[in-house]
Amino acid sequence: MQTYIAHYSSPAASDARAKGLFEFESSSRAGSKANLHDARIRMLELYGKDAVSWNIVKVERKKATNEACNEQLELDFRAPKQERKRAKRKEWW
Question: Over the chain, what is the mean pLDDT?
Answer without folding.
Answer: 84
